[in-house]
Amino acid sequence: MPVGIFRVCLLVITAIVNHPLFFPKENGTVPENTEEIIQKMKEREESLRLEQLRLEQEIADQEATQKALEKAALVVEESKEEKVRWDMWTALSMVIFLLIELWRQDFQEGNWQDIGGEEDDMAVLGKAFKGVAFPNKAVLASFYEKRILGTTGDMARMREMVEGFADDLLEALRSVCNRDADMEVEDCMGVGSMYENWRVRKPFVCDLIVPFAPPEPYCFRSQTWCSGDSFPPDEQGYGTIKVCRADEDVTGCICDKTKLGEDMLCLLHSQVNTTRPSSEMEDLLCFKNTQYLDADQVMKWFQIAVTKAWNRISHKYEFDLSFSLLDLPGALKIKFKSGKSIAFNLTPVVQYENSDVYFISHFPRSSLAADIPSSTHWFLTFAVYERRFIHLVSKTLPANACHVSCLQILSFLHGKQCSLTGPSGLTNYHLKTVMLHLLQARPSQDWAPEKLEARLQDMLKFLEKCLHEKKLYHFFIGNGKVPAELSFPIIFQRAEPLNLFRPFVLRRDVYRKTVDTFNEMLRNMSALINEYTVHIPLAHTNGIRKESL
Questions:
Q1: Which DSSP helix (H) or strand (E) runs through 378?
Q2: What transmembrane ranges does the database entry give (predicted)?
Q3: For 134-176, how does the pLDDT look when each residue is reduced to its tens digit (9 = 90+)?
Q4: By the 8 A CB rule, do 331 and 345 touch?
Q5: CA diameter of the chain
Q6: Crossing angle for the helix pair 403-421 and 452-469, nearest 10 degrees?
Q7: The domain 122-247+281-534 is classified under which CATH number: 3.30.460.90, 3.40.309.10, 3.40.50.300, 3.30.700.20?
């Protein structure tokens, strides 16, 4: 306490002593020029203001930098959230895609040919049908009776004559062949439009297939595009045939894949069996240096064998036999002395396992068909099952059902149009495939004879829809609804559907020509039918095209 009082007193005394009024003369530090002091104070104030502005600018820059950093951090955070959302959408899209793919496979397996549920689509006429006048029932009935039935009445006699001659020719062929070295030929079978009773355009041609097998101890082992191994898209519908010994393991022994050495011997295969000279395989009609059956070699062998057989029996007949087409080696023609002729195709085939599916060496080609990959690739034909299916379904249809009539009329119209404007990518096989799909999709009562007009329109609409989508699936391949009575091989039922119109995607010129021909056929339909109809009601002559056909 005393120390504090002392400090206060000392401070007061010091202030009094230093006051300028006590020593005016000695303390002369007060400036005499007041304006100079004021000027210096203003300068100092200005410098302080500038310093304050600089500091404020620095603070503002720091705040802007901080905001920019915060905004960048926010953008990064948002991008992370967006990435998370995008990853979630990507995952969701993949799930949706997988679900669609699974649905597509189920649809193809079960519903790809179920067109019966598309009544709304089938009821709406497409662009090609606008302004088209469909002939009525009376005109169609008259046309069918006068033009179709009048030209198909002698088909039965022709089939009988050709089958009898073919059986005799094949019997002679067996007699001229070496049973120990040549292929073994079986009985022929009739397939196609002549044996399904819907062929309408002349010349009538019977299609006969002749199964053959290799001599003992060899056998055929086939592989199709749907057997598990990957085949290119242009090889779908084809297969290969390997010539093997009957006692050979189907999977192949390891001695065929590795070199055992001179002092080692395979206990399953002797040296005689494992070494096959190239000449031996060529004698078995295989492609050079392979074990695969060569279609060209087969056709050469078959032509030579048929020629020898005909030379043996020619004295029994009063006509000549010759090969008619170079691009179809099995095409034969019977020429009578009167000048008339009968054409038929006799084509060697190989049976697929124990079924009625056959590998055919040569198949009639259309402008739409792609080139065969190689002579070791054989096309598969389901003609026997197609004939059986039509026969089976016909038993359930009303009497005089119109399914064959529809196909005949459509085949006639298309053939007539092609004769006027040139060939198109459509074939009679495509038209028959359309009928098979509709036969399976529609109830039996819909094929009553009085519904000919409606069913013909259905076939045309379905064909237009297929052309628009460039999709017409093979009737049997991928069809899980094939009747069990046919005993159809399950491997083809489970296969991916085969699009017969796939070449349209690759060949735009052929597609455009085909569509134009189809549209022109629709516009000319009434005129084409009325041309071959004796009496045409006046009410149905309106709208008919006036140009000459």
A1: strand 378-381
A2: none
A3: 788 888 888 888 878 766 667 888 999 999 999 999 999 999 9
A4: yes
A5: 171
A6: 50
A7: 3.30.460.90
